[in-house]
Amino acid sequence: MLPPNATGRYEQSLFFFEEPEIVVIDLGNRSKVVAVSTRNIGGNGYFGAKVSIAQFRHYLEERFDLRYLMLRPDRWTWYEFLLPADPSARVQLTNVELNRARIENFIPEQGFFSREHTEAYRGFQFEKRDIQRFEVDGQWSMNDFGRLHSQIADLYALTKSVDAFADAQTPQNHKRDIVESFVKPFRGGGSYLSLFRSLAKAGGEDARPDIKAIQWASPGYIDVVGDADAFDRLISLVDHYSQNEVAIKSNYDHLWSYLQETGLLKRSLALGLTQPYVVTEIENRARQLGSVLGVTSYPTLLSMAGGDALVSAKALLAASRRIEKLFRFFVEGRVSVQGTTIG
């Protein structure tokens, strides 16, 4: 059974050749219709696919082409419609099935990406994305590249979250999301891996750096797309680790051993601890690790953790481990960044 017909608002053209060839219709419910002209077979209307905001963003970011977008729409919904003469009038959308004839006549061939548009989409504000090149040498497998990107992505999400939380201009609801992303992973016993996934989810796409290109040959490189300031902070943390490795390891062991001795490594939250001196000791040891690790001030980290000393301590341990793993790539001579000598 087909979904019901709908109405929408004409938003803009994306590709114009004598007339609008690709248009966007806003459905007003976090969805769009991306449609192509049917005049190539003598029609005078448009055939389009209903897409989510996330799908549309990904298309505009060239994560896939227009054919992929239109063949895999939100809720498998397609429409045909005419554009009204009055641009302010509502567009009447008729729900249709995707059949072989429509695929052959209307769906674009592979390889049409958003860079081909004649008009830029004006509905989104995109954060400037920069390319950070990590030069690589030695023998690399796809698994090695995956591990490197994983360490970069985790620390990127952490630094973006720290900066957003410390920024007075960040909306309070986003700061609450960051606090929730810190606390939630540890409610079920604690997972370092899920902490970084939670941070990335709370930060949205801006908290996730993407791989743009990989050159396998040695020496080669991996290009990662994201925010230049976040990359600078990430590289600075690794450089700082290289100069303070002994002190960081000592304070890491000091905190980790206490949590192990008290059976708190597997405990979810500090809430409910009946011994105030235990919380105080955790805070003291975490503060010492935080001061030498250099991610952010301990009071800021404690606030990000919702005031929970145990969560902030585990977050520091997780951050330290991620920085160390990324540092190993540098000190082994397998990774380098132009203009910076680490290790």
Question: How do you describe this structure in short?
Answer:
This protein is α+β, with helices and mostly antiparallel strands and 343 residues long. It has helices spanning 53-60, 66-71, 100-106, 142-166, 172-183, 192-203, 228-243, 245-261, 276-293, 298-304, 309-331, and strands at residues 6-17, 19-26, 31-37, 46-52, 78-81, 90-96, 130-136, 210-215, 220-226, 335-336.
How many strands, what sense, and barrel or not for the largest sheet? 6 strands, antiparallel, barrel
Beta strand count: 10
Report low-confidence residues grouped into runs of 5 or more.
none
What is the mean pLDDT?
88
Shape: elongated
Number of helices: 11
> Which percent band covers the strand fraction?
15-25%
Gyration radius, to the nearest Å?
A: 25 Å
**What series of H and E elements makes up the topology?**
EEEEHHEEHEHHHEEHHHHHE
- Helical proportion, percent range: 40-55%
How many discrete structural domains? Answer: 2
State the end-to-end CA separation.
Answer: 63 Å
Query: Which structural category fits the helices and strands?
Result: alpha+beta
Side-by-side strand order of the widest sheet: 1-2-3-4-5-6
Written description of the protein model:
- By secondary structure, this protein is of the alpha+beta class.
- It folds into two domains: 6-113, no CATH class; 130-336, no CATH class.
- It is 44% helix and 20% strand.
- The chain is built from eleven helices and ten strands.
- It has helices at 53-60, 66-71, 100-106, 142-166, 172-183, 192-203, 228-243, 245-261, 276-293, 298-304, 309-331; strands at residues 6-17, 19-26, 31-37, 46-52, 78-81, 90-96, 130-136, 210-215, 220-226, 335-336.
- A six-stranded antiparallel β-barrel has the order 1-2-3-4-5-6. A four-stranded antiparallel β-sheet has the order 8-9-7-10.
- The termini are far apart.
- The model has no long low-confidence stretch (mean pLDDT 88).
